[in-house]
Amino acid sequence: MRLTNAFSLLALAGSALADTVTYDWTIDWVTASPDGFARPVIGINGQWPCPLVQVNQGDTLIVNVQNNLGNETTGIHWHGFTQKGTPEMDGAVSASQCAIAPGSSFTYQFTADYSGTYWYHSHVMGQYPDGLRGPLIVNDPADPYADLIEEDVILTISDWYHSQTIPLVQAMLSPNNTAFFIPPVPDSMILNEGGSNLIPFAKGKTYRIRLINFSALSAAFVTFGSQVMQIVAQDGRYITPADAYTIRIDAAQRYDVILTCSESDVNEPYLVALDANPDYTNPNATPRPITFPYNSTGYLVVDPDGAFTETLEVEGSFTPIDDSLFSSATETSASLGEADQTIQIDFNFCVDANGTPQACFNGRPYVDQQVPALYTAATVGDDNTNPIVYGNVNPYILESGQTIDIIVNNYNFALHPFHLHGHHFQVLERPGTGAGPYPGFTTQSSECPAFRDTVTVYANSYAVLRFQADNPGVWLFHCHIEWHVDMGMSASMIEAPEQLRGKQFPQDHIDACKAVGQPYQGNAAGNTEDPLNTTGFVYLNPQPYLGALFDPNSVTTPQAKRARDERKMKRSAKKFPMFTS
Ligand code: C2O
Ligand code: CU
C-alpha cells in the first residue's frame, strides 16, 4: 500500500525569527487527470497540483509570478491574509490590481501576520476551478497544540469539472439558458487534488488535520464515524475547542481538527461527501431528492497491510455542528454593543439588459470597470469618499476606526458562502433556513463569537457579521461560489479612503495595467479631470462571457470594448436602470 500525500508538511513548529521566503512561479497550462479524466489545468512551474506554500508567522512572503498561459490573464489572491498595510498585494483583479497579461510578470510581497490554514487561488474571473489554487500554511511559533500533536496533515476537498470554466460559464450566462441561474454541476470530487485518501496514522497518536475546501460550488460533509474530532481553528483563527462528529465545510472555508488515533490495529474509515445541493436542510428546496453522488471513504491507516473493510455510507442527510455558535479562543469581549455603521446587503438573482442571468446585491451585479477601485481611491483626491467614482462595483465607503456590521439577507432558496477580504469577521448571528430577512435586532449567538473569513448564509435567511475598520484598502465581499462571482455576486468595501489618497504602487503593478491597455488612475473609467464624470463606466457584464481570455495581439480589453459598445447602445436605447430581481 503506497501512502501518498500531495502536500507533505515540513517540521511542525515555526521558528521565532522572521524570514523572507521567496517563490518564483511560472503559471502554465499542463495536463492532469486527478479523477482519471485527462484535461488541461493551470499549474505552477509545469506541475499540477500547485505547490504547498508554507511559512512561519511573521515571515515576509515574496511571490514572483510570470504568466505563461498564452491565452489568459491571471492574478493570485492569498485567501484569508489580512494584507494589512499592503492592500495592493491582495491579488483581487479589478479591485486591487489589473489582470496580469500573458507574458507579463508581477510580484506579490506581504507579511504572514497570523498563523493558520489558508489557501491561494487565482482571482481573475472564473479561473481557479481550472486548477490554479493551492494550500498556504502559516506555522505558529507559539502553537498551543504543538505538544499535543504528532503531525499536521493537509486534506483538501474540491468539486471537479471535466470542462474548462470558460465554456461552462458561457453556457450558464447565455440568455438562451433555460436552466436559468443553475450553476455548472460538478463531474466528480477530488481529495488532495486527486492524491490518496489514505492518511498515515500511528496507533494512539494525535494529529491535526487541516481541512481546506477548494470548490467552485460545493460544500462537503466530513465525518470520522464514531471518532470525535476536536475543532480548534476555523479560517486561520483559533476557536474555543468544539467536539463534533460531522462538520460541513463550505467553499473556501478551512477547519483545523484534532484527532486521536485509537489503540486498535484497525484502519479507521472517514467519509467526505460533496454537498452540491441547494439546501441540505430542506428537501423541498429542490425538485430532486437531496443526494450526495460524490463521496469518498478514506482511511486513517495504522496498518498499511491490514484490511480496509469498514466503510461509512451516506445515510439520508447530515447534521453538522453549528459553526455560528463557536467562540473565539483569543478575544473575550463580553458584550459587543452597537455598530457604528451597518451595511445591508440583500442578495437575489436578477437579469440584466442583455437578458443574462446575474447575481445582484441590492438589485445590482458587480461589473468590472477599467480602473481597479484601489487605484481610483489613490488617485481621485477628495472625491474618493464618493462611491460614484468607483463605478458599478457595489461600493461601500467605510470610515476608519469604526465598528462595521454587514447584514446579509439571502432571498434565495440555496445556501451561499460569503467571504470578506482583508478581515476576519465575528459571526454575531446566523440562523438556519427560513428565518427570513434580518428582523432589526441581533440575538448574539455567543458571548464572544469566533472570527472567520467565510460564512455560510442559509436559504431565505440572514447573517450579521462584525469587524473593525482598521485596515485601509479596497476589500471584496462576495459569495465564494465562483460561478456566482461570474454572475456579479460581489461588493467592494472601500475602507478608510482618506488614508489611501496618493498611495503609490510598484512599477510592475502599473505596467500590468499598461499591458492590458487599462488606465490606472482616475475614476472607474480613467477620467482624471472630473472623477464624477461617469462617461465610460461599464454597466453590463460582457456578453458573451470571456472570462480571463486575452488576445495578446490587441490591447483592447473586454472592459474597454464593452464600454464603447455601451456608449453606442445608450445613445440608441435609453434602457437604464436595467436590473430586475
Ligand atoms: Cu478566496 Cu475573493 O476569495
Ligand atoms: Cu452564491
Automatic annotation (TrEMBL):
<feature type="domain" description="Plastocyanin-like">
    <location>
        <begin position="151"/>
        <end position="284"/>
    </location>
</feature>
<dbReference type="InterPro" id="IPR008972">
    <property type="entry name" value="Cupredoxin"/>
</dbReference>
<dbReference type="GO" id="GO:0005507">
    <property type="term" value="F:copper ion binding"/>
</dbReference>
<keyword id="KW-0479">Metal-binding</keyword>
<dbReference type="InterPro" id="IPR033138">
    <property type="entry name" value="Cu_oxidase_CS"/>
</dbReference>
<dbReference type="Pfam" id="PF00394">
    <property type="entry name" value="Cu-oxidase"/>
</dbReference>
<dbReference type="GO" id="GO:0033215">
    <property type="term" value="P:reductive iron assimilation"/>
</dbReference>
<comment type="similarity">
    <text>Belongs to the multicopper oxidase family.</text>
</comment>
<feature type="signal peptide">
    <location>
        <begin position="1"/>
        <end position="18"/>
    </location>
</feature>
<dbReference type="GO" id="GO:0010106">
    <property type="term" value="P:cellular response to iron ion starvation"/>
</dbReference>
<keyword id="KW-0732">Signal</keyword>
<dbReference type="Pfam" id="PF07732">
    <property type="entry name" value="Cu-oxidase_3"/>
</dbReference>
<feature type="domain" description="Plastocyanin-like">
    <location>
        <begin position="27"/>
        <end position="142"/>
    </location>
</feature>
<dbReference type="Pfam" id="PF07731">
    <property type="entry name" value="Cu-oxidase_2"/>
</dbReference>
<keyword id="KW-0186">Copper</keyword>
<dbReference type="InterPro" id="IPR001117">
    <property type="entry name" value="Cu-oxidase_2nd"/>
</dbReference>
<dbReference type="GO" id="GO:0004322">
    <property type="term" value="F:ferroxidase activity"/>
</dbReference>
<dbReference type="InterPro" id="IPR002355">
    <property type="entry name" value="Cu_oxidase_Cu_BS"/>
</dbReference>
<dbReference type="InterPro" id="IPR011707">
    <property type="entry name" value="Cu-oxidase-like_N"/>
</dbReference>
<feature type="region of interest" description="Disordered">
    <location>
        <begin position="556"/>
        <end position="581"/>
    </location>
</feature>
<dbReference type="InterPro" id="IPR011706">
    <property type="entry name" value="Cu-oxidase_C"/>
</dbReference>
<keyword id="KW-0560">Oxidoreductase</keyword>
<dbReference type="GO" id="GO:0033573">
    <property type="term" value="C:high-affinity iron permease complex"/>
</dbReference>
<feature type="domain" description="Plastocyanin-like">
    <location>
        <begin position="367"/>
        <end position="498"/>
    </location>
</feature>
<dbReference type="InterPro" id="IPR045087">
    <property type="entry name" value="Cu-oxidase_fam"/>
</dbReference>
<protein>
    <submittedName>
        <fullName>Cupredoxin</fullName>
    </submittedName>
</protein>
